[in-house]
Design brief:
The protein has one helix at 2-16; strands at 25-41, 44-55, 58-69, 74-83, 88-97, 104-113, 127-137, 142-152. With 154 residues, the chain is mainly beta. The longest helix is centred in the first third of the chain and has 15 residues, at 2-16. The chain is globular and about 45 Å long.
């Protein structure tokens, strides 16, 4: 009986966890695994990364570049997600990192999708944003995390 009640509560939580889907609004979520490198330039670290992920919209590969000010732990950058069918999603990112602990860093980013350079295929002209929460192993450059967000089709 407890199992049935617990499963019902979990289902209702998932069903009412997000607002109703507005006309043309697409909600999505997923995870990412990547490898990144960093190069010190003045008071910044230039981060380049490549990886892959799975989302509610399908599998994709990702490339990104960010400039991290290691004094403020804030970054700006861009990323490109290329889905298996060839559709491309471009974003501009802003991030903030937590001070490293045991060679691990936690990064929180907000990726903005602008209609004028959003991408190709099903992403042409879309506007939206998604949040990315990642952990980076500073000794290996491996990073993993989750993301969720939404966009609006034109």
């Amino acid at each position: 009986m407890k199992t049935i009640i617990l499963m019902t509560v979990m289902f209702l939580t998932m069903a009412f966890d997000r607002p109703a889907m507005a006309e043309g609004r697409i909600f999505y979520y997923g995870y990412i695994l990547a490898q990144e490198t960093g190069q010190f330039v003045d008071d910044k670290i230039i981060v380049n990364g490549t990886g892959e992920g799975i989302s509610s919209l399908g599998r994709f590969t990702v490339t990104y570049r960010a400039e991290l000010n290691f004094v403020t732990n804030r970054s700006t950058g861009t990323q490109q997600l290329t889905f298996q069918n060839g559709d491309v999603l471009n974003t501009d990112t802003r991030g903030i990192g937590q001070p490293p602990f045991h060679n691990m860093a936690v990064v929180n980013e907000l990726a903005s999708i602008r209609g004028d350079r959003s991408g190709t295929g099903r992403f042409a002209g879309v506007v939206g944003e998604f949040s990315i929460d990642r952990t980076v192993d500073l000794s290996t450059g491996k990073t993993f995390g989750t993301f969720k967000g939404d966009f609006v089709k034109p």
